[in-house]
Specification:
The protein is of the alpha/beta class and 348 residues long. It has 2 domains: 6-188, Rossmann fold; 197-329, 2-Layer Sandwich (Alpha-Beta Plaits), CATH 3.30.70. It has helices at residues 17-31, 71-79, 110-120, 146-168, 180-185, 187-202, 216-220, 244-248, 258-279, 287-312, 316-324, 341-347, and strands spanning 6-11, 35-40, 57-63, 86-98, 101-103, 124-134, 205-207, 226-229, 232-235, 254-256. The strands form 3 sheets. Strands 1, 2, 3, 4, 5 and 6 form a 6-stranded mixed sheet that branches. It has a two-stranded antiparallel sheet with strand order 7-10. The chain starts with 5 loop residues before the first strand and ends with a helix. It binds flavin mononucleotide. It comes from Dysgonomonas alginatilytica.
Length: 348
């Protein structure tokens, strides 16, 4: 017997993992005759949401970006109307597989912060559940093998089924508690990612040689972060690095500009050290001052160099050179996209 007659699942998803879990929950809910509504938070105007019936279960599911929920998910939670509903928080993290061992991702402050925000609005937290779906962060590592991706999908499908059984019958599931110490310990890094890291990653993408200007990346970007400059896609600081553009590009033309980061890093150390020496010769031992000066230098250089790169990309020859210095350009690196159920079910 299920306790709930109605469930609303709010999800955000870059490469489909969080959406996949949302679809599985709705499949299990339908089997129990629960009315399940699925809402993509990047497609709604949150200000138009009205308070929910109190007996409706709310599920929020989103990937983890930099040991926290991405800004779009946090903004959504911040703007939710007040309510007394039970809320289950879920995330999809970077699962990997080494031998037969699945290495879990890191949730960081995502659940702590959002639970706090929801509680101040009157909601009751009925679950905090991480799912170790395949890592999609292919700017920093090659795409996982199809075998691993299928394995992790299958594993999470059955985990979702078990979790749903418990939640639908009115129970609570707090599997995230077992990671609480590590989540608190990495919270300073989540702050650094939120105030600086995500803006740096926003400038790591460019459209390489294969771009045919179809503008799919611009049209599909969930946060409208991609503009057209010099007749090519240009990533603004609004980008959340969700990987949707890279994952969906039919030409696999979107790359990570590894060389740009290498050059910016090298210039930052030399120019930043010079500035520190000139501006604060007596305070060189202060870590905080060093951190601020180096960060300002890094972002100023990155902004300028990214613009220059955009202009240079117009030239076919230079575009080829830039592509060859991007690891994502090489076939072995691959792209990531969550796979439909029939693919992993067929092979298992
Ligand atoms: C920019 C970025 C940052 C990420 N940071 C983390 C992280 O801090 N911890 C983690 O476990 N996974 C991290 N990941 C991996 C994703 O959370 C994970 O692959 C997720 O399942 C993707 O879900 P989606 O397909 O719904 O977007 C990150 C991915 C990206 C693109």
């Amino acid at each position: 017997m299920s306790t709930y007659k109605e469930i609303t699942i709010f999800y955000f998803s870059g490469t489909g993992n969080a959406r996949r879990i949302a679809l599985w929950i709705s499949e299990f809910a339908n089997k129990k005759n629960i009315d399940c509504q699925l809402i993509d938070i990047s497609k709604i105007d949150i200000r138009e949401l009205e308070a929910f019936n109190t007996d409706r279960l709310i599920i929020i599911i989103s990937p983890i970006h930099g040991f926290n929920f991405p800004k779009i998910t946090i903004d959504f939670i911040r703007h939710l109307p007040k309510g007394k509903n039970k809320v289950v928080l879920m995330n999809t993290r970077a699962g990997m597989k080494i031998g037969s061992f699945v290495t879990p991702g890191l949730t960081g402050v995502a659940f702590l912060l959002s639970s706090l925000l929801l509680k101040t609005k009157g909601y009751r937290i009925a679950g905090q559940i991480p799912f170790d779906m395949p890592s999609n962060w292919i700017s920093i590592h090659p795409a996982l093998s199809q075998k691993t991706i299928k394995f992790l999908h299958k594993r999470n499908y059955y985990l979702t089924e078990r979790v749903c059984d418990k939640i639908f019958s009115g129970g609570t599931v707090f599997t995230a508690y077992k990671d609480i110490i590590q989540d608190i310990l990495i919270s300073p890094i989540s702050l650094v990612y939120y105030i600086a890291g995500r803006f740096a990653f926003a400038k790591s993408y460019y459209a390489g040689n294969n771009c045919d200007n179809c503008e799919l990346c611009i049209k599909q970007c969930p946060v409208k972060a991609i503009e057209k400059i010099s007749n090519r896609p240009f990533w603004t600081f609004k980008c959340e690095s969700c990987m949707k553009c890279m994952s969906n590009c039919p030409q696999k033309a979107i790359e990570t500009a590894h060389a740009l980061f290498l050059v910016t890093g090298i210039l930052t150390t030399s120019i930043g050290s010079y500035l520190l020496y000139k501006l604060f010769p007596d305070n060189l031992q202060f870590l905080f001052i060093k951190f601020i000066v180096l960060n300002i230098t890094f972002f100023a250089l990155l902004t300028i160099l990214y613009k220059i790169q955009q202009l240079l990309l117009k030239n076919r020859f230079i575009r080829k050179i830039i592509s060859h210095t991007s690891l994502t350009y090489y076939k072995f690196w691959g792209r990531y996209k969550s796979i439909p159920d029939n693919k992993w079910k067929k092979d298992s």
